[in-house]
Specification:
Strand content: 15-25%
Number of domains: 2
Largest sheet: 7 strands, antiparallel
Strand order of the largest sheet: 3-2-4-1-10-9-11
Number of strands: 22
Shape: globular
Oligomer: single chain
Number of helices: 17
Distance between the termini: 25 Å
Radius of gyration: 23 Å
Length: about 500
């Protein structure tokens, strides 16, 4: 999971990109970067850390130009070393900078092809660098060697070849020096991408972003989502060219975006995230009443922040008081996207503190968006007991997370998922709850699809093991587990960070 931003304007874009990156900061807290273009000069700044830490006044003064892209990174593929912060850049053809949200499922094969057939050298283990080099190579092939001028059709032919070669999930923004921006979304539309515009002197200013909140904050009008298998080319005057470039496209957005990843004030594929979470709470409430009509729940308490909307509606359905029982430290990042189990465990205690009067002597139902590794749930339940709760029940707005996610969410290893090969009762015992209820997958799908009935399928692979790209095998998952488990990534991170200098431009 990452956040991408791209802007073409008639005025300087650095502060607009900065502001947009801050509102998609929830999509990645490991690293941030920005690249701008002033005439034919490229200016780049990227480093590990939050947006506010990476970009100081002196950096912003150097990031001049009327076109640029930005990125916030949460590492999944590659490593969480700051050397792999984005945007990434190649100088041929023209000069291309790229930011990527998602994961390629055939990155290893493509890396070999790039070296042996395309004669391109890769410097990192990042699949984003693979994607950048594939696009650069295909753009070079598309324009040929006989002309300098780039046309929209050249871009669309290149993106079409990217779709043929690159499998998996990707929402991409790229800057082509001297020409403008390119954006495209994988053939299944797994990761989100939206387009907006607003008047800007003689021409339009165009913004491309991971979530619609970036448009709202900067005053852009939505032109709708970039479609599954669609490419968008925006020239330096703000003219927009759009084309479906994939031979086979079928919208199957990631349903976990609606459960947890996206901000509640975002609209993704014409579905309001906030409304979908209300419906999740309503359906979960009815399911609870079916399973336990004579419950003794006295208070419903959300695990802040993403479960608040769901918990409030659940409380309304079952007729129980809704209360805020945990106070969140705003200066601690999202524990789900922290690298390593040990760090996630430490951060829970730093992040939340219980209000004892809401727990003392009560039967409480804690509501969370999901249970992934179980670490957070276990600690929160223990905090509720220490605050004096008589019984602690637990409700998950999502079904059991049983399978790895290979499309850009940090769930690569089945053995790290608490629900993998465990029944609901066994998970309940593992996290220390007195009773546990999960959302049904069909209810979750219905809750989201109600916002846009035209969406026929969702990527729900982490719940049901059905991978929409059709190329994920158990051999692939086994190899992925060896590369991306917490222990392996920690060792790789330590090795790289001990030898690599900070990236400062």
């Amino acid at each position: 999971m990452c956040g991408v931003i791209g802007i073409v304007s008639q005025s300087s874009v650095n502060y607009a990109i900065y502001e947009a990156l801050t509102v998609v900061q929830h999509r990645g807290q490991d690293a941030a970067g920005m690249v701008t273009c002033d005439d034919l000069r490229v200016h780049l700044r990227k480093d590990g850390g939050l947006v506010r830490d990476v970009f100081q006044s002196r950096h912003m003064a150097q990031l001049v130009g009327n076109v640029g892209i930005g990125h916030v990174r949460y590492p999944t593929a590659g490593s969480d070393s700051k050397a792999e912060a984005q945007p990434l850049y190649v100088n041929s053809p023209y000069g291309i900078a790229l930011g990527h949200n998602g994961n390629l499922t055939n990155a290893a094969e493509l890396s070999d092809e790039l070296f042996r057939e395309d004669l391109r050298q890769l410097n990192t283990n990042s699949d984003s660098e693979v994607l950048l080099n594939v696009f650069a190579h295909e753009l070079r092939e598309s324009i040929g060697t006989s002309r300098l001028q780039l046309e929209p059709d050249d871009v669309f032919r290149a993106v079409g070849r990217v779709y043929e070669r690159c499998h998996g999930a990707y929402a991409v923004v790229a800057m082509i020096v001297g020409y403008g921006l390119v954006a495209f979304r994988d053939a299944n539309g797994i990761r989100p991408l939206i387009l907006g515009e607003k008047p800007d002197t003689d021409h339009k200013s165009v913004l491309i972003a991971s979530e619609s909140v970036a448009l709202d904050v900067l005053g852009y009008s939505s032109l709708g989502d970039v479609g599954a298998g669609e490419a968008v080319f925006v020239d330096l005057k703000g003219n927009i060219h759009r084309k479906i470039c994939s031979k086979r496209s079928s919208l199957s957005p990631c349903i976990f975006e609606y459960v947890y990843l996206a901000r509640p004030d975002s609209i993704i594929d014409d579905v309001a995230v906030y409304k979908s979470r209300l419906r999740m709470g309503e359906k979960l409430g009815h399911r609870l009443l079916e399973q336990w009509p004579d419950h003794d729940i006295e208070t419903v308490i959300p695990v802040p922040d993403t479960s608040r909307t769901c918990a409030l509606q659940l409380a309304n359905v079952i007729g129980v008081k809704y209360r805020e029982g945990f106070i969140k430290n705003r200066y601690i990042g999202r524990t789900f996207i922290m690298p390593g189990q040990a760090e996630r465990r430490r951060s829970v205690k730093q992040k939340l503190n219980a209000i004892e009067l809401e727990f003392r002597g009560k039967n409480v139902l804690l509501v969370d968006d999901s249970i992934v590794r179980g670490t957070t749930s276990q600690q929160i339940i223990q905090m509720a007991r220490e605050a004096g709760a008589r019984n602690v029940y637990f409700a998950s707005a999502a079904p059991p997370v049983k399978y790895p996610n290979v499309y850009g969410i940090d769930m690569p290893v089945a053995g790290e998922l608490v629900a993998n090969n465990r029944s609901t009762d066994e998970v309940c015992h593992q996290i220390g709850a007195d009773w546990l209820i999960y959302q049904k997958l069909e209810d979750l799908v219905d809750a989201v699809r109600e916002g846009n009935p035209s969406i026929e399928t969702f990527d729900s692979s982490c719940f049901d093991g059905n991978y929409v790209t059709g190329d994920v095998t158990w051999d692939y998952l086994t190899a992925l587990e060896k590369r991306r488990n917490d222990g392996t990534r920690s060792n790789r991170r330590n090795e790289l960070d001990s030898t690599e200098p900070s990236v400062i431009h």
